[in-house]
Amino acid sequence: MAVRNRLKSIRHQHEMNQKEFAQYLGLSAWSYNRYEKQVIQPSLEVALAIAERLKQPVEEIFYRESSE
User: Fold this and answer.
1) Which pTM value belongs to this model?
2) Were both Cys, which of 11, 28, 43, 58 would link to 21 (CB 3.0–4.6 Å)?
3) What is the number of H-type helices and E-type strands within the chain?
4) Model confidence pLDDT, tens digit, residues 8-27
5) Three-state SS for 43?
6) Are residues 7 and 35 in contact, defined by beta-carbon separation less than 8 angstroms?
7) At CA 30, angle to CA 24 and CA 34, rounded to 5?
8) What is the Cα–Cα distance from 21 to 23, expressed in whole angstroms?
9) CB neighbours of residue 1 within 10 Å
């Protein structure tokens, strides 16, 4: 099972570009871009910090995608 995220759709809801949203989350634009494109996954610590900043449960942002 792959871990996926909803960062792009959440960013669009906030009406921000990637650089602005990365700054809002306290991340580098480079790291955020790789998370949003799902090239890499954030560490658990970073995922929890993102969820806390967005005031959403981590499960609302990150989810497991079944290979079925």
Assistant:
1) 0.89
2) 11
3) 5, 2
4) 999 999 999 999 999 999 99
5) coil
6) yes
7) 100
8) 5
9) 9
